[in-house]
Design a protein that fits this description.
The chain is of the alpha+beta class. Among the domains are: 64 residues, no CATH class; 148 residues. The chain is 29% helix and 32% strand. It has a 21-stranded mixed beta sheet. A two-stranded antiparallel sheet has the order 1-2. The chain has a two-stranded antiparallel ribbon with strand order 3-4. Strand 1 and strand 2 form a beta hairpin. Helix 6 packs antiparallel against helix 7 and helix 8 crosses helix 9. It is globular and about 100 Å long.
């Protein structure tokens, strides 16, 4: 005879799990259950969801019955402080704790480990083509496209014939090359087939250039920061470059960090913090589905464990070179080296970051140490805020797959529902205030087949228990492979806005249709349909009627751009006064060009 280590029930020596609480005791004779299986005390492994083994006994997954679970707010006010940082810290603990559970392959027979595995599966669906959060953090996602080369033409069309007579005479052509920090644009405004105004814009890592032959014979060049001060009245600033060791293997660093930090933060969650209910019927209110026989895990944080984990975290990260190099390498991989400069600007100017005292540090590594010190100093406070807020995560799992999760924090509750397979994804979330009567909801029903994405997304407002549609997005044949030179996938996206306060019950529709052009390249059609109450009158332009529908046609070539640098001598502008003088001269010439155009039209 022996006792269950979880609930102290007297057990038989052969029992693989406790028939009272379901806690595992020893391995089954046929080996530990694989994923998707559950144990029986006869020694066999059965499929998840089966109430009884072939021997007639209950399986470990079904040892106790539970109540029904539905997203219902109890209306009780939670006392305590609001703390955004505390909520972020809680999310970090869960995410890295999940990583640790996966890396160490911990035995998944305790409530806390099962809860963490449920979090991992919540965001790792079987839906084909979906990139997981872990994939992105490993550097396996798609970097933001920065290099670009194409010739582009833009034209307009409307439902007002008088206005169209003017628009049809106008066309706008661009030729663009962008590679790394170098940029070249040729732009030309045409009227009745003849050039009215043209320009060349250039840029590299240090300078910008402008050439408008109709306004000046000079090709002006100026230092980037100097030009920004003149054009925006804001100092571009000079930020110390971020010096770091670029990582060739981002995934290797990610795995190392997850092991180290996951092990630390795993200490912030214990079996005592997780309650398990079995055989629960879960109703998905937004997706209108019901699942029976679910396991429901409820996590509530322990103040001492959270505070201890945060202090250990700050000690580990204070002088962590690998963490520093990983963050910089990952940022550059997805967004380029310029993003690190922008990050430096944010760190020095953001009020959120400045509250931590990080901006007083002179280098990025000193900032990392300052942030670690801030976490250590306020660890007890963050933990107390989390507990006082009534923070709680409730996760429902059906046959090994999470289907529903609710997160309560302070005066808000978020409900998340998901059903997925390789071709279909049903996703919904709802956030409401503490009395459960006001908030918003989001419901997506998407299918992906043969590389095409189709479906609909609805966004609704919840006001005093009444739900009203704010916006809907319809996706039709969105290609995962075919994209234009602008990076826009082929297919049609229709956005319908139906905000009651803005449109008084009417609807406004935006449509973007991207497809192959007849003679090669890609055609983008952007259409806006306005309700009658918002359609502008054209009387001020001397035209009759209103404008209720507009379509912009953008053509992009699928070949390299034919843009060329200016064929003119360059003139360097080295002071704010020189830039302002050149701009004033060009503005005066622009007025002359406009007057000449208007005079020629009247003749």
């Amino acid at each position: 005879m022996k006792k269950c280590e979880n609930c102290n029930l007297i057990l038989q020596d052969s029992d693989a799990f406790c028939p009272k609480c379901g806690g595992a005791t020893v391995e089954c004779e046929s080996g530990s259950p694989a994923e998707g299986e559950t144990a029986c005390n006869c020694g066999e492994n059965c499929s998840c969801g089966e109430e009884n083994c072939e021997c007639g006994e209950q399986t470990a997954e079904n040892v106790q019955a539970g109540p029904q679970m539905q997203f219902v707010d109890d209306g009780k006010k939670k006392k305590g402080k609001k703390g955004l940082i505390a909520a972020i810290i809680a999310a970090v603990i869960v995410v890295l704790g999940v990583g640790a559970a996966l890396v160490y392959m911990l035995v998944l027979n305790t409530p806390s480990k099962q809860f963490l595995m449920a979090q991992a599966k919540m965001f790792k669906t079987e839906w084909s083509g979906k990139t997981t959060v872990a994939d992105v953090l490993k550097g396996k996602g798609q970097p933001v496209k920065r290099d670009f080369s194409s010739d582009i033409s833009v034209s307009m069309d409307t439902d007002n014939q008088n206005f169209n007579d003017i628009l049809n005479k106008l066309s706008l052509d661009y030729k663009i090359k962008s590679e790394g920090s170098e940029y070249l644009l040729n732009g030309e405004l045409n009227y009745n087939g003849s050039p009215l105004l043209s320009c060349v814009l250039t840029a590299d890592e240090n300078t910008v250039g402008l050439y408008v032959p109709e306004l000046s014979s000079e090709y002006y060049i100026a230092e980037k920061g100097l030009a920004q001060r003149v054009l925006t009245d804001e100092d571009a600033g000079e930020y110390d470059p971020i010096e770091y060791t670029k990582l060739d293997d981002i995934e290797k660093a990610y795995n190392s960090l997850v092991k180290r930090y996951g092990k630390i933060l795993l200490g912030g969650i214990d079996d005592e913090d997780v309650k398990v209910e079995k055989n629960v019927t879960v109703k998905l209110e937004l997706l209108e589905k019901e699942f029976k026989g679910c396991k429901v895990y409820t996590y509530t944080p322990d103040k001492e464990r959270i505070a201890a984990a945060l202090k250990a975290l700050s000690g580990e990260m204070r002088e962590d070179e690998e963490l520093f190099n990983y963050v910089c390498s990952l940022t550059e991989f997805y967004y380029g080296s310029d993003a690190l400069t922008m990050l430096g600007a944010y760190a020095e100017e953001s009020t959120i970051v400045s509250e931590t005292g990080v901006t007083e540090a002179e280098t990025w590594k000193e900032r990392q140490a300052a942030l670690a010190d801030y976490i250590a100093e306020h660890a007890d406070e963050f933990a107390q805020q989390l507990v006082d807020s009534g923070f709680e995560i409730k996760t429902a799992v059906h046959k090994g797959k999470p289907v529903m999760q609710t997160v309560k924090y302070s005066e808000s509750t978020v409900c998340f529902e998901i059903i997925s397979d390789r071709e279909e994804l049903l996703l919904a979330w709802k956030v409401i205030d503490d009395d459960g009567r006001n908030g918003a909801s989001f419901v997506a029903e998407l299918t992906r087949k043969d590389g095409m994405l189709n479906g609909k997304v609805d966004v609704n407002n919840i006001d005093s228990d009444e739900s009203s549609r704010v916006m809907s997005i319809e996706l039709k044949d969105i290609s995962s492979e075919k994209k234009s030179a602008l990076g826009i996938p082929y297919g049609t996206v229709t956005v319908t806005v139906a905000d009651e306060d803005l449109l008084n019950g009417e609807e406004m529709t935006y449509t973007l249709s991207t497809s192959a052009a007849e003679n090669g390249g890609t055609e983008h059609l952007m259409t806006v349909e306005l309700p009658e109450s918002l359609a502008p009158s054209l009387e001020s332009l001397g035209l009759s009627g209103t404008l209720s529908e507009m379509t912009m046609k953008i053509y992009s070539s699928d070949k390299a751009s034919t843009a060329k640098a200016p064929d003119a001598d360059s003139t360097n502008l080295s002071s704010e006064e020189e830039i302002e003088e050149a701009l004033n001269e060009m503005t005066g010439e622009l007025a002359n060009v406009i007057l000449q155009f208007m005079f020629s039209e009247m003749m």
